[in-house]
Each structure stands twice: as C-alpha cells, then as structure tokens.
C-alpha cells in the first residue's frame, strides 16, 4: 500500500509537470504567432518603404529588427520543439506510472484474496481445534473413569492392600498381572486335583 501511494504521488507530480509544460507550450505558441504577425507587419512595412530612398536608414533599422525577429522566431521554434519533447517524455512517464499503479493494485488485490483465504483456513483450524479439545476432554474424562474402575476392581480383591498414594499406570498393570497370575495358578491347582 505504501508503494502504491508513492507511485500515485509520483504520478500526480508527473501529471502536474505535464499540465505546466502544456501551458508553457501554449504560451510559446501564442508568442510565436505574435512574432510572426509582427514579422509579417514588418515585412509589409519593409516592402512599402523599400522604394523610398529617403527612408533608407529606417529600412536598415527595419531589416535589423526583421533579422532579430527571425532569430527570435527560430529560438522560440527550438524551444517549442524542446517542450514537445518534454511533453512526450512526460506522457510516456505518466503511462508507465499508470501501468505501475494497475500492477500494484492487482498485487494488493491478490494479497487481500490470499489473506482472506489464510484467515478462512485459520478460522477453520480454530474451529477444528475447539472440536478436538472438546473430544479430548471427553476421552480424557472417560479414560479417567475407566482407570478408576480398573484400580477399584484390582485392589478390591481379597488380599490386596488399598493404595496409600496415587498409582502409576505401570503399578496398576503390575497389580492386575499379579491377580491374573494368581488366578491362573489357582485354576491349574484345581485342574490338577480334578475339580471342575
């Protein structure tokens, strides 16, 4: 967005220079027309007085003025050509800046669309995370109830000592394995004695 603002400011400066140059061009064209009118008037005056020898000095003066006007016209035509070149360069620069503005606007739109897509994915992930947390809490609660029942069943057997502290999963597993082994031994003993 900063780059787009900078390009737009540069575009406004270039357009202002273009307007100023066009105004200067119009002023030069107006002066050129006035000089040409003066030149035509002087030429007409020169033609009317050329045949009068008594105005020889005036004719020489007019010739000098005529030469000076021609030099001025030539100079202004050169300045006008330079102004035309400046206008052409400014128009080219304005076109390039406008193209940059379009490109930057396109990039900004692409970034906005990408940001919206990322935000949508983030919202979906957040929703999924919340659902997962709820499911995890439910599974954890069920697991704790199941573990509590296993511990209760394991240590309620005859000959088992009630635990004084919180048991680890390994200790619960060892106690269950001990009960299973004792039951298997008792079953084998009954089997050997022929008791069904």
UniProtKB/TrEMBL annotation:
The gene is Ccdc27. Residues 4-45, 73-100 form a coiled coil. This is CCD27 protein. It comes from the Eukaryota. Keywords: Coiled coil. The keyword Coiled coil applies. It comes from Nothoprocta pentlandii.
